[in-house]
Structures are given as C-alpha cells and as structure tokens.
Write a structure and sequence with these properties.
Length: 59
C-alpha cells in the first residue's frame, strides 16, 4: 500500500473550465509487478491551512 498526501487544494484545468481538487489522501495498491493501482482518494477539508503531517496506524 502507498498513501500519498496532497497538502493543499489546487485549481486544475478540466477541458475548458477550472475546478478545485481538494486536499486529501490518495491510496494506491502496489502490485506484484511493482506498478501502482489507484484505489481511492479521501478528501480532507483543510480550510485556509495546509495539511502538514498525516500519520497512519495499523490496529
């Protein structure tokens, strides 16, 4: 598993319009061949701040 953190919302071009992609965590599975497979993105509302650090714990 690989979890990538996006610390700030960003505005991106989507065809002929602009849209905001929220800050969040993107989760990928690492396959047997080493390639990443996107699983899902968890949006996180950071308001006017940035996400500085995110920890994960296995229970």
């Amino acid at each position: 598993m690989l979890v990538a953190e996006h610390n700030l919302p960003v505005t991106v071009r989507d065809g002929d319009r602009l849209r905001v992609v929220a800050a969040g965590l993107s989760v990928f599975r690492i396959g047997g061949d080493g390639k990443l497979e996107f699983i899902r993105k968890y949006d996180i509302d950071v308001g006017d701040e940035s996400m500085f650090w995110m920890g994960l714990v296995e229970l």
